[in-house]
Amino acid sequence: MPLSLLRAGRRPAVLLPDTVEIAGRAVPLRLNRHPLAKRLTLRLKDGGIAVTAPPRASSASVLDFVERHRGWIAARLDRAAPTLVVEPGAVLPFRGGELTLVHRPDRRGTAFQEIDGASHLVVGGGLEHFSRRVADALKRAARSDLQAAVDRHAATVGLKPKALALKDTTSRWGSCTADRRLAFSWRIVMAPPAVLDYLAAHEVAHFRQMNHGADFWALCRELCPGTPAGRAWLKANGASLHAIDFGAK
Questions:
Q1: Where is each YgjP-like metallopeptidase domain found (predicted)?
Q2: Is the pTM here over 0.85, yes or no?
Q3: What is the CATH number of the domain that holds 143?
Q4: What is the DSSP string of 56-81?
Q5: pLDDT digits (tens, 9 = 90+) for 38-49
């Protein structure tokens, strides 16, 4: 901190970002300083956060205000977002492309197929089990893709994972414990493969660095040069994957 600021007892100014991360998405942030405003207020407008503030409110106080209302914002964004329902004929994102869901009640099992050059998931059995069977098929694909990526990055750092679990949480895409137990959101299989690879590299990097400091990010980029692009994709598109409705979990 500059000596002049220390002497004056002032803190460096905080710059207000153009976006804030809410539930895995980069949400635009707009500030309106109104001469008659007595307190901070916020509302959602055009898919972003609009904050009205008194003229002398600091950027730091605005960011703190947004942080304290993070849960409220996330809930309203989810409510406003169009929901893709898993049902016959729906087209899901999958491994960077599209996956058309097909129901064949006369068949047994679930299978990925190429039909007329496009990827399909053909689901047999009763309609009441359709969404669960789609989710099960995606989980199997996610485990296969994640295990391959984790094994590759783990070999680079010279340490093996103790376990790999799949979950369906909206709070985080992946996690790693101190004893190298990994957990991932299986919905990552709907993202492009490069994004899944970044996520695997991110968690494996925690084998060596249980933090998010400079050394951690350097190792993450060493494992996955596409780290910046992967992070950006999840911030911009992660919420849309969480919004896909698979019914009861």
A1: 38-236
A2: no
A3: 3.30.2010.10
A4: T--HHHHHHHHHHTHHHHHHHHHHHS
A5: 999 999 886 789
